[in-house]
Fold:
Amino acid sequence: MAAPVRLLADARCLLGECPLWDPERERFAWLDLAQGVLHEADLDGRQVERSLPLPTPLGGLVRVPGGLGIVTSEGLVAEDGSPLLAVPPDGEGAHPNDAAVDRSGRLWVATADDAEEAATGRLLRIERDRTGSLGGPMVVGNGPAFSPEGDTVCWCDTLAGRVLAAPLDGSALPRTLHAVPPEQGYPDGLTVSADGSLWVALWNGAAVLRLAPDGRLLERIPVPAPLVTSVAFGGPDLDVLLITTARWELDEGTLARAPRSGGAFVWRGDAVGLAEPVWRPTAGLSRPS
Structure:
């Protein structure tokens, strides 16, 4: 029998997203992108919430030297709002929607159209002196995540229902690893485990998908909330999967059936994750790809 999902924190996020494990504080961290709140919880469920002095919507959470960094429409900033990388990760009519650091320490950001109608979203690699685009155009981008070897980036073209992959060096065009029919939900945030499997949150799908490296469906993990937004491995042994969810525009009937929507859930199975890299301010400048 599959391991059950259990509630870690009844955070009631409007748009809970961007989870990661902070080994320095020994707890999970995630954002409410819509309300500008940083949530943290240890494995026993003890919680900390902090409103951030930043404009919403927020666009991502990553590890930086000495703490956590938040992606905004103006660049990468520290928890106190001080700038770390002043390169705006968006374009006309778009905003940062998700972010991660690759195994070389470079920042990647997936963007989305402000109105979620036009294909203005892209997958960007952001360095101190420039921004490069690898994926897009798309209406809503989510992810990214990186292969254990660090040579492949995966992300979601959410409204198109596609999980995509491409070599980091741009030597081949993006390919579709997995397609999700709209009646089953929309692929949102994702992560990669040590065996190369992909773990994909399903917005409006009440589940997390476990995919083989080639995109085959291996497992579907039910979550007691319809709007599943993202996933991250954590814990001392990186064997706990944190699952974030949202309450965005849910009606009273849906909230009555899924009252923990917006909470953070955990799942323990047979998988082990990879440590999230720390952003390096000079990564990529000497040998750009």
Remarks:
- Confidence is low (pLDDT under 50) at residues 285-289.
